[in-house]
């Protein structure tokens, strides 16, 4: 994970899709938005309702769908998987 100061690393990347998650338990973060890039990296934005925090990760599409699935539900998944590079 890269710090918030490294958010510039997403400039120039091709977005293949977006996944939006919402907490189903009283835990933090309340909401997560993942930008899925064609190189199969992601940029996650999460919020506790008062501030939005970005984090740049090296999770692939499948990992994003599964991460925190016990406490987060997917509200939206619009990813063109044909754009994803294979790892």
Count of helical stretches: 1
Question: Whole-number radius of gyration?
Answer: 13 Å
Could you give the count of β-strands?
A: 5
Mean pLDDT: 79
> How are the strands ordered across the major sheet?
4-3-2-1-5
Residue windows where pLDDT falls under 50 for at least 5 positions = none
Output the helix-strand order. Answer: EEEEHE
DSSP helix fraction: under 10%
Task: State the shape.
Answer: globular
- What composes the largest sheet? 5 strands, antiparallel
What structural class should be given to the helix and strand makeup? mainly beta
- In terms of DSSP E residues, the strand content is 35-45%
Our measurement of the CA-to-CA distance between the termini, rounded to an integer number of angstroms, reads: 18 Å
Descriptive overview:
By secondary structure, the protein is mainly β. Helices cover 7% and strands 41% of the residues. It contains one helix and five strands, in the order ββββαβ. The model has no long low-confidence stretch (mean pLDDT 79).
Write a short abstract of this structure.
With 87 residues, the chain is mainly beta. The chain is built from one helix and five strands. It has a five-stranded antiparallel beta sheet.
Walk me through the topology.
Blueprint: E1 15-23, E2 31-37, E3 42-47, E4 52-57, H1 61-66, E5 72-79
Antiparallel strand pairs: 1-2, 1-5, 2-3, 3-4
Index terms:
41% strand, mainly beta, five-stranded antiparallel sheet, 87 residues
């Amino acid at each position: 994970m890269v710090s918030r100061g490294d958010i510039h690393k997403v400039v120039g990347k091709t977005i293949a899709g977006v996944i939006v998650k919402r907490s189903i338990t009283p835990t933090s973060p309340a909401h997560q938005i993942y930008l899925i890039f064609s190189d199969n990296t992601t940029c996650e934005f999460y919020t506790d309702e008062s501030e939005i925090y970005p984090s740049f990760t090296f999770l692939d599409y499948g990992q994003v769908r599964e991460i925190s699935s016990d406490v987060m539900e997917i509200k939206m998944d619009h990813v063109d998987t044909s754009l994803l590079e294979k790892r």
